[in-house]
């Protein structure tokens, strides 16, 4: 068996998960190091959730090697789960209880005394900025407050490893940024984070390293900066043409500028030119007599990498 990376909290080699004849995870290798924020990106059906359930010791692997906190999740599931925190995609808070009671009751499941539960609840309510809401019913909270309370509840047992499944789905920008700040502070305190997200900016903000999964396999792995460097260019020039230019004409236009970029992507409403100097590319486009109706030069992002690796086709 391949030895885990030093200080690896999650070690997987050839990890597989099958449901009958369908293989959701097809043999992946990964190591999550202590103290980092590690992300899973991928379209629906890529295998992210199946992998997270195996890491959470609630779904046994179908093959390969998996070690969580140095233990086999099949043999030591309860011990592993006792040292994990899990923030599910959907809030599972008890709406009949108060905000504080959601934490104190949950703490009892981990064997904490009533005094420890009260102390821990006070600490966590302060951490997620909900102290003033402590005695209110959960159903009276906003969506962002509920997500913060769900994260607080996942921290009651002081976990070494926190699993977050789409932590900011459905939140407005202000609530998302507040949650990002809380997760960043958690990582600074030494908690290891594993995050699945559909938001590319979230992955760039939070993740030290990440994998892009597609079809049950890992398509790429690295830091956000490394992935952008390896799979995209420094800048992207977007060219939009007027309504008189039909979408069917974009292929011909792409042929006229193909040599000006490392790669040209043809979309129904615009051309994307992947280049290291966007302004220089724009000048060259104009020098060839082309007059786009609108031009945008932007830095390349993780979304460009994601779409290149997984495609733009909608996955149900």
UniProtKB/TrEMBL annotation:
The keyword Transport applies. It is found in: Cell membrane. Its main location: membrane. It is a peripheral membrane protein. InterPro entries: AAA+_ATPase (IPR003593), ABC_transporter-like_ATP-bd (IPR003439), ABC_transporter-like_CS (IPR017871), ABC_transporter_ATP-binding (IPR050763), P-loop_NTPase (IPR027417). Keywords: Antibiotic resistance, ATP-binding, Nucleotide-binding, Transport. Gene3D superfamilies: P-loop containing nucleotide triphosphate hydrolases. Belongs to the ABC transporter superfamily. This is ABC transporter ATP-binding protein. It comes from Kribbella deserti.
């Amino acid at each position: 068996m391949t030895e885990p990376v030093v200080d690896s909290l999650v070690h997987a080699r050839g990890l597989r998960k099958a449901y009958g004849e369908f293989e959701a995870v097809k043999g992946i290798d990964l190591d999550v190091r202590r103290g980092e924020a590690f992300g899973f990106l991928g379209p629906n059906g890529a295998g992210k959730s199946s992998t997270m359930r195996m890491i959470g010791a609630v779904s046994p692997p179908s093959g390969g090697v998996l070690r969580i906190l140095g233990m086999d999740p099949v043999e030591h599931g309860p011990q592993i789960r006792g040292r994990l925190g899990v923030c599910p995609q959907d809030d599972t808070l008890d709406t009949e209880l108060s905000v504080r009671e959601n934490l104190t009751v949950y703490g009892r499941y981990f064997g904490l005394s009533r005094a420890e539960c009260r102390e821990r609840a006070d600490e966590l309510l302060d951490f997620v900025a909900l102290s003033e809401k402590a005695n209110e019913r959960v159903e009276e909270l906003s969506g962002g407050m509920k997500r913060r309370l769900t994260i607080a509840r996942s921290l009651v047992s002081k976990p070494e490893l926190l699993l977050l499944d789409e932590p900011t789905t459905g939140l407005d920008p202000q609530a998302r940024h507040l949650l990002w700040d809380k997760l960043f502070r958690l990582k600074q305190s030494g908690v290891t984070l594993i995050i699945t997200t559909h938001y590319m900016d979230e992955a760039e903000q939070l993740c030290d390293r990440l994998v892009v999964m597609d079809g049950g396999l890992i398509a790429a792995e690295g830091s956000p900066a490394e992935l952008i460097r390896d799979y995209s260019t420094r800048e992207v020039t977007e060219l939009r043409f007027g309504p008189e230019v039909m979408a069917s004409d974009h292929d011909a236009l792409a042929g006229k500028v193909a040599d000006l970029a490392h790669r040209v992507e043809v979309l129904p409403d615009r051309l994307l030119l992947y280049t290291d100097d966007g302004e220089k590319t724009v000048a060259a486009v104009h020098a060839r007599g082309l007059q786009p109706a609108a031009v945008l030069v932007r830095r390349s992002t993780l979304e460009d990498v994601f779409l290149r690796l997984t495609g733009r086709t909608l996955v149900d």
